[in-house]
Amino acid sequence: MLSADQGKIQTIALVRDFLQSSGFCRALAELDRELLDWDSNLNWSEVGPATTPAAVRLESGKASFTLPPLQVVVDDYVARTSAAWNAAHSSSAERNLAQASFQRVEPLFSSEPLQRLESIHKSNILVSKLVDLPRRLFAAQGPSGNLGDEPSESTVRVVVTASTDKIVKISDTQTGAVLWSFEYPKGSVLDVELDCDEPGWLERRDDAGADADGSDKSRSTSVYRLVLAGMDGLVHIVDIATRTIVQTLEPHSKYVTAVKVVESKGEFFVVTGSHDKTVKIYRRTGAGASPGASECNKMQQQQQQQHYRQSLYSLVHSVEFQGAVECMCLVPPEQEEPPAPQDSLETAQATHSVAACQDEETQQHHRRRLGCWSIAVGCRDDNYLHYIDLDSSTGFRQHRYNLNANGDDWVSFSPMCLALSPSGRHLACYTDTASGRILVLGARSAVQVQSLWGIAIDPMFAQPRCIFDPSGNFVLATADDHAIWAYNIASGQCVRKMLGHTSTIRGLHRLGDSWASCSFDKSVLLWGSVATINP
User: Fold this and answer.
1) Which H helix or E strand runs over 273?
2) What's the pLDDT tens digit per position in 351-372?
3) Does 458 score more than 50 pLDDT?
4) Is 375 left (phi over 0), alpha (psi -120 to 50) or beta?
């Protein structure tokens, strides 16, 4: 328990930090003069949030607690006590129920990388994505692509990377060998997604699933492509087997910052977001059924594959926002009947925001959205998180949720990165605040489950990244100190610093129990809760 004086010192330190960071120099000088009358022995010019009795700096990867800036404390107070908050976001039981989803447990992952890949690129790496691909795609790639005598239908875990040298590469995570490379026509690639003509492949991609022996017979004839989002405003779809561009999507007028591929309600979509303030949705217009799944002879199959390559995606919808699109995240379909808690009628009513809603039209929309994926969109100069339902039959209906705890429309921060929890029930929203604030939200909800802070980032130039760990109890976030900070969601505290990079971390991506980070130090680091990266 803190003494009264210690509590006052913390409060004054927060006020001083706020005045200093806001440029109120005269008010700060006057405050310091008055503080001399209260304690002339304390040098207030050296007191700040990181030097108060309750604040401990992170050192050598040990657990710590950092006192949050004043604005974050105020925001959190408003979120917990404001009548407007309670009226706008159901009952407090909904928040308590969401918080109960997380546990105060020790992390199972290491604070050091399991593997370092330092020879893939000679330039700054912008993107790193883990994927599982058939070995047959790289069977004839020469010495660097030699994968041994494994059967061609087996899979290999690879990392797809893009660098400022305009080269996109696919590398073996076990050996670091470059298996595939492609030179982007103009500018650098800012995001990469995998596309395939095989039904159900998206579920296996996200679950890192294959047969127990690492094989998947249905992949033997499937066509795999990379969807590349570039700084030139273009999105190129590249056939991995032939290393050729099979389609260039209708261009954006500025950087394409994010691209997603998803199958929703039986249709395949590519979704792109750009600094031109638009999100574009493209629907697959090929032969429909997967060539690999068709029951036809070899010639028919080849013809179908050729038709598929020639007619991939067409633009079906576009949405304009008030600010540049910085991040997007796919959100899985809602459940038909959310599990009901056993505690009380109040918590039962608050289990799900839609279930608690009394508006008949909204409930009808919920029923239509069952089986429908949504894309969550974060933009500059916008205090809302926007959702677009990927369902052409409803006209790609939109809905939004306020990120401000008190429900007002003041824009004090922008979402820079969105990450989905393993359960699909929560999102982590990394903002551009100087305190590195990360909001843990309910999916398709404005309920703020937790607010994490303490990471120092540059609000003007930072490109922060975050993911959930495999257990869903931790948020892993990049920082300006070149470390990855691990926050326990239940406690709200940073419990570990993951060290290894020596420059800005630009990419962070998880697949199953493993994740990869890439940096301007020209390296890719592989992390995980198990000692083996390859499945």
Assistant:
1) strand 267-274
2) 333 333 344 445 444 545 568 9
3) yes
4) beta
Task: Please state, as a whole number, how many other Cβ atoms lie within 10 Å of the Cβ of residue 51.
Answer: 12
490 in Cβ contact with 473 (< 8 Å): yes
Taking the C-alpha atoms of residue 503 and residue 208, their distance in angstroms, rounded to an integer, is 29
Beta bridge partners of 516: 509, 526
Compute φ and ψ for 464, nearest 5 degrees. Answer: -70, 150
Contacts 24+ apart (CB under 8 A), 240-245: 240/133, 240/137, 240/170, 240/180, 241/137, 243/180, 243/182, 245/185
CA-wise closest residue to 201 among 262, 128, 125: 262
What domains sit in the chain, N to C, each tagged with a CATH number? 1-55 (no CATH), 61-118+334-350+372-535 (2.40.128.630), 130-276+278-320 (2.40.128.630)
Q: Could you give the CA distance from residue 91 to residue 363 in angstroms, rounded to a whole number? A: 18
- Would you give the distance in Å from CA 244 to the centre of its chain? 29
**What does the chain come to in residues?**
535
CA pair distance 305, 292, nearest whole angstrom: 8
Q: In angstroms, rounded to a whole number, what is the distance separating the alpha carbons of residues 314 and 89? A: 38
The CA–CA distances, whole Å, from 482 to 59, 119, 413, 438, 503 equal 13, 19, 22, 17, 5
Residue 79 near residue 437, CB atoms below 8 Å = no
* Paired tokens of 3: 């003494």
- Which whole number is the average pLDDT over 245-258? 95
Q: 């989803």: which residue's tokens?
A: 101
Closest among 440, 389, 423, 489 to 207, alpha carbons compared = 423
Which neighbouring-strand residues pair with 458? none
Average pLDDT over residues 148-171: 86
Structure tokens at 255: 């950087």
Q: Residues of the chain with pLDDT > 70: what percent? A: 68
Measured distance CA(514)–CA(328) in Å, rounded:
21
Output the 3-class SS for 233-295. Answer: CCEEEEECCCCEEEEECCCCCCCEEEEEEEEECCEEEEEEEECCCEEEEEEECCCCCCHHHCC
